[in-house]
Amino acid sequence: MTQAEIKWIKSLATKKRRDEEGVFVVEGEKMTDELRQSGFTVRRLVATHPLPYTIPQLTPEYVDEKTMQRISLLKTPTPVLAVVEKPVGLRWPAFERDELIIALDQVQDPGNAGTIIRTADWFGVRHVVCSPGTVDCYSPKVVQATMGAIFRVHIYTAVLPAFLRQAKSHTTVYGAFLHGENLYRRPLTAGGVVVIGNEGRGISPDVAAEIATRLCIPAFPGDGGGSESLNAAVSAAIVCAEFRRRAKYPVTMFNK
Q1: What is the pLDDT of residues 183-220, one digit of tens each?
Q2: Domains of the chain and any CATH numbers
Q3: For the packed helices 232-248 and 110-122, what is the interaxial angle rounded to 10 degrees?
Q4: Contact 79/68 with Cβ under 8 angstroms?
């Protein structure tokens, strides 16, 4: 591998370069194993040892561990790295009646964003819409945190107020707030858009103005003596779980 090739791969650590090239980096044997079944186009596949699988029409490049350390975008390099083309031509998701969509409003932590995408995958949420201020979901740390879910969940970037205004004419828009209606008592539709806000500031005012229903995950025992708030990824998981539980097992007793 030439110095120019090493430099090019390393440059993909920046969002600007990933956007210019239309690619992102995937590292790890498990991740690349899932990648080969995803339908994503792999531009380069680099490994330190022969792989137990193949990717059609792509010949792996084998390098020594020292070279892998130089090209890896992670603190702890893995034995395999792939340069993958980002999906193109994705439009805003259709607002189908039972479609649940997650929207991220300026979520900054890569671990949170990646975990939310992984959570979406677990609960069958096919679309995650990100505000321009949200961390790049194709950054190395986010990709790693998704544990392969990035290949199954469609990721979009949109100005959220405009997106939500369009959504409201087709479905219900919910938001996770510190103060709102009790998630477990509020009737929920099968589908809708659920907005998760910034880790420190929550949902921004211009986005909040477009939200029809404010949901709150109640604390226990509720005396205000605990943590100020829940982690963004934890909130997303609890809300998704309740939507899916309610869709499969409708219970009216919680609405009393």
Answers
A1: 999 999 989 999 999 998 999 999 999 999 999 999 88
A2: 3-85 (3.30.1330.30), 100-255 (3.40.1280.10)
A3: 10
A4: yes
Residue 68, CA distances (Å) to 6, 33, 102, 106 in order: 9, 18, 36, 33
The pLDDT value recorded for residue 256 is 39
3-state secondary structure 60-127: CEECCHHHHHHHCCCCCCCCEEEEEECCCCCCCCCCCCCCEEEEECCCCCHHHHHHHHHHHHHCCCCE
| C-alpha to C-alpha distance for 86 and 9, rounded to whole angstroms | 15
Listed residue (37, 10, 53, 45) closest to 140, CA to CA: 10
Percent share of the chain, pLDDT over 90: 75
